[in-house]
Amino acid sequence: MHTQVGIIGAGPAGLLLARMLHLQGISCVVLESRSRPYVESRIRAGLLEQGSVDLLTETGMADRLYKEAMVHEGIELVFDGQRHRIDITALTGRKVYIYGQQEVVKDMIVANLAAGVPILFEAQASEISGLEGERATIRYTHEGKEEVLTCDYIAGCDGFHGICRDAIPPQLMRGHDRIYPFGWLGILADAPPTKDELLYCRHDNGFALFTMRSPTVSRCYIQVPPDENAENWSDDQIWSELETRLGKHEGLTLSTGKITQKSVTAMRSYVAEPMRHGRLFLAGDSAHIVPPTGAKGMNLAISDIYVLSKALVAFYKKNDASLFETYGPTCLRRIWRAQHFSWWMTSMLHNLPDASPFDAKRQVAELYTIATSKAGQTLLAENYVGLPFEM
Ligand SMILES: Cc1cc2nc3c(=O)[nH]c(=O)nc-3n(C[C@H](O)[C@H](O)[C@H](O)COP(=O)(O)OP(=O)(O)OC[C@H]3O[C@@H](n4cnc5c(N)ncnc54)[C@H](O)[C@@H]3O)c2cc1C
Questions:
Q1: 384 a catalytic residue
Q2: Which residues line ligand 1 (CB under 6 A)?
Q3: Signed CA dihedral, 243, 48, 16, 6: sign only
């Protein structure tokens, strides 16, 4: 089988690229190691920047999003017994949308399959080669058979644990890494959101985040040690800790309900440079991950694809390969800004295990600096709502 662009991975990055290439008449095949039901039910991110929603709208994949997403115009910082609202829309003119990643993925799969774009589920890529030659090759297993897909270019959209990043020769690859000494215990619960906007809480016991997936489903997180076992936490303990970290505030009562899912996510920042090697382009989590405090993971995957699709379209439509050279550097400018923002939010809101009383007081002072100054609020809001795709 031959195609113009072989896409490994049917996450937000791979599926969006497939759609954008198809709309320009460029052929592609998507290989996904997991089953369709698995990828459609994988609970991960849930916040889309305005720019991400605009791109989903332009590519005809936002109809259900506009019916079901919850549109947010602000967030609250909760610390030192006080609540401070950041009015994102007043400060930036833009909004964010609460819509689960699994719903984004479902909409993308439907749009691609309806248009006849081949997505092979349970097709595990095992090796890529020919990156410096005339033609790239992907070896994969599908329905028990070894298969080969040849292509002009490979989009490595196979997430953090995929095979593509390791195909770049180690002497050319530089990985920038930071592992945080804590994780997030996340729950899904059949409970209306505690508040109609996200609550980011700094407490001496650790960070807590109150978010949601729908008007009837809450998603909440508490900072825990990175190797914590979610099963060590009973439902009552989780609700009790969430209540403590939220604190007592007039007119704000913790909303509780049946916990339907709980898991621990480790926190890590990582950036791979370069993002291109010959016929291979890395995009999304295969090239970088962020701690989820800034809600940037899925949005960065989407902005990478915006830049990559432009480069591929320029090549196939105008025979102009110049954007291949600038793909990585263009993405990396935004990626590093998102890395900084995610690190900053994480550092400002979490308890470091070795933090001194000085550190704790300095952290609260920093939160006051941001929350009580229009300049501080604007800085947070501009980054939270999403920077331009190209900068
Ligand atoms: C557990 C977890 C929780 C997260 N929670 C949040 C959150 O709360 N908020 C937030 O903003 N972000 C969160 N993220 C980050 C966000 O979900 C990712 O940034 C986003 O999924 C990136 O999209 P992607 O398409 O690049 O990669 P992915 O969504 O990871 O997609 C990669 C795809 O490639 C497939 N694949 C891998 N290897 C192969 C192979 N060899 N052959 C074929 N297919 C392959 C995988 O099965 C997968 O479907 C979370 C991520 C994880 C892992």
A1: yes
A2: 8-14, 31-34, 39, 44-45, 101, 124-125, 157-159, 162-163, 265, 284-285, 292, 295-298, 301
A3: negative
Tokens of 194: 């505690």
Distance 356 CA to ligand 1 centre (A): 35
pLDDT digits (tens, 9 = 90+) for 63-109: 999 999 999 999 999 999 999 999 999 999 999 999 999 999 999 99
Q: Is 72 a residue of the active site? A: yes
DSSP 3-state of 322:
helix
Ligand 1 atom closest to residue 31's alpha carbon, by position in its atom list:
43
- What's the rounded Cα separation, in Å, for the pair 17 and 23? 10
* Residue 25: Cβ within 10 Å count: 10
Residue 353 has pLDDT above 90, yes or no: no
If one residue of 42, 285, 296 were mutated to test the ligand 1 pocket, choosing by the most ligand atoms within 8 A of its CB, it would be: 285
Predicted pLDDT of residue 391:
87
pLDDT of residue 301 exceeding 90:
yes
For the chain, what is the mean pLDDT?
97
Identify residue 201 by its one-letter amino acid code. Answer: C
